[in-house]
Amino acid sequence: MEAILVMDGNNELSKKGIIPWNSTKDLHFLYTITKRNVVIMSIHTYNSLPNPFESGLIIVLDNHPELYLDSKHPSYCNTLFTNNFNIHKSILRYREKYRQFYPALSSNFKIYIIGCEKICNQYLDSCNVMWVLQNKNCFSCDNTYKYILEKQFKEVDVDMKLEETNIQKITKYVHNF
What we know:
It is a single chain. The protein has helices at about 25-35, 45-50, 85-95, 95-100, 115-125, and strands at about 1-5, 10-15, 40, 55-60, 80, 110-115, 130-135, 145, 155, 165-175. With about 180 residues, the chain is α/β, with parallel strands linked by helices. It has a single domain (about 1-175), classed as Dihydrofolate Reductase, subunit A (3-Layer(aba) Sandwich). The strands form two sheets. It has an eight-stranded mixed sheet.
């Protein structure tokens, strides 16, 4: 599994539970990484995104998933709302069954964790890669990422073109097993 954190210039994640920046180019970068894969996020992250992901399967973690069962929203066709915070284990165990049920998943799909500090930290021990995308701007957020990644991960070089985005830096951390 891999985690993706998107932060502003002050290592801050959100303001009042919402991502305060909205850059189509930055989101396109995120969508490109996660396309045809499983993406696990909190309901707050899901509600903060302006467009639904084009991933093979979106898992939205919420304490009350029953609130979304009857919705007719078009983006829900590849979205699963659940309060099962261990769903990643089921997905990994039954990869082929998930691929059959969600045909948009690639044959070698990955599971990406995105979003808030609580969600990323919950899955951090299961992730072998952590991506940190840092925005050039600061937004006076109230949710700062406090975990020191160097405790479990080592930084590796990433060569990606960022000239047309508001992303200042992309850092890739690989788990120290």
